[in-house]
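JOB MANIFEST
job_type = single_chain_structure
chain_count = 1
residues = 189
[input]
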Amino acid sequence: MKTPFEMPRARTVLLILDMISDFEFPDGEAVLRAARRIAPRIAALKARAAKARVPTIYVNDNLGRWRSDVRALLARCSSENARGCEVVQQIAPGEKDFFLLKPKHSGFYATPLAELLAAAGAKRLILTGLSTHQCILFTANDAYLREFELRIPRDCVGAQDSREARFAIRYFTSVLGADVRPSERLRLP
């Protein structure tokens, strides 16, 4: 994975939120079901983004382990005995990807995400991952306040409850003006 100093210039950046997990938390099984549904679509979108030279930044919960050890997190969550290891193996970050750990819901809160995006010259964010009505919503709000154009493909975000997800999708379009069309219809960059 790259260091922040190697951030390529890009008008559009793909964010993958909270998909690297062992899903060992309350409601973890329900969240895992959502992750299994969206992981193949996120992987396909990420492949398209790479071809279009759109960089990917993973922004992930630290899972209550207050160490900034991304490699240990990846190893634990992708091991064969981890719940949801197949999700993590499908969308694991590559050497050209960036990875940030966040302490709270928003990808911007107490992370260098804003600085990475400024270094890239980004104006547009594509938000994907979990959970639609929590971490995606908080990150989208913070991005909107920073005047980013938002694309949140509805087939690349998930939540344990479909009602909560539908609420968030309506909010993304009506309040934030986000483009929520399915990922295969999303133009890159």
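[summary]
The first helix runs from residue 28 to 51.
The longest strand covers residues 124-130.
exit_status = 0
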